[in-house]
């Protein structure tokens, strides 16, 4: 993943933000929509594109565009910066390759301890039974 190239490929759209804010909300377009065309990107390898497609299919549109919205701040520039940061974090998070699990077996002492506990439990239950009369 090449961050510089990805940042250049991001597309921004300013939209009117919803919610409280009085007249300021009605006049300014402070909400920012950040779009990233995944499949036409030169900042991602083919393997990375496939990994993203498999991991977050519900966030990617049918055209292959990943979109985020940011309306935290009243400033359009601040929202743009937050949107870029979020997009990069989202890509990094979903491009991580999970470590393969190494099989392990319990130690000899752990096995002996478990068997000893089982025997003690069996004895405890055996002592609860009434004695057999022959």
Automatic annotation (TrEMBL):
GO molecular function, a single term: peptidyl-tRNA hydrolase activity
Keywords from the named record: Hydrolase
Protein name: Alternative ribosome rescue aminoacyl-tRNA hydrolase ArfB
Pfam families per the UniProt record, alphabetical: RF-1
Disordered as annotated region, ranges: 97-134
EC number: 3.1.1.29
Family listed: Belongs to the prokaryotic/mitochondrial release factor family.
Residues annotated as domain Prokaryotic-type class I peptide chain release factors: 16-32
Biased composition (Basic residues): 97-106, 115-134
Lineage: Bacteria, Pseudomonadati, Bacteroidota, Flavobacteriia, Flavobacteriales
Transmembrane segments: none
């Amino acid at each position: 993943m090449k961050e510089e190239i990805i940042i250049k490929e991001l597309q921004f759209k300013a939209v009117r933000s919803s919610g409280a804010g009085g007249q300021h909300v009605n006049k300014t377009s402070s909400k920012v929509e950040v779009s990233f065309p995944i499949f036409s990107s030169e900042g991602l390898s083919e393997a990375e594109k496939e990994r993203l497609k498999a991991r977050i299919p519900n966030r990617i549109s049918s055209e292959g565009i990943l979109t985020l919205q940011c309306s935290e701040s009243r400033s359009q520039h601040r929202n743009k910066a937050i949107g870029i940061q979020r997009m990069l974090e989202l890509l990094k998070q979903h491009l991580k390759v999970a470590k393969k699990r190494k099989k392990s077996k319990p130690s000899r002492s752990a096995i002996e301890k478990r068997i000893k506990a089982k025997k003690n439990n069996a004895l405890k239950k055996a002592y609860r039974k009434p004695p057999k009369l022959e």
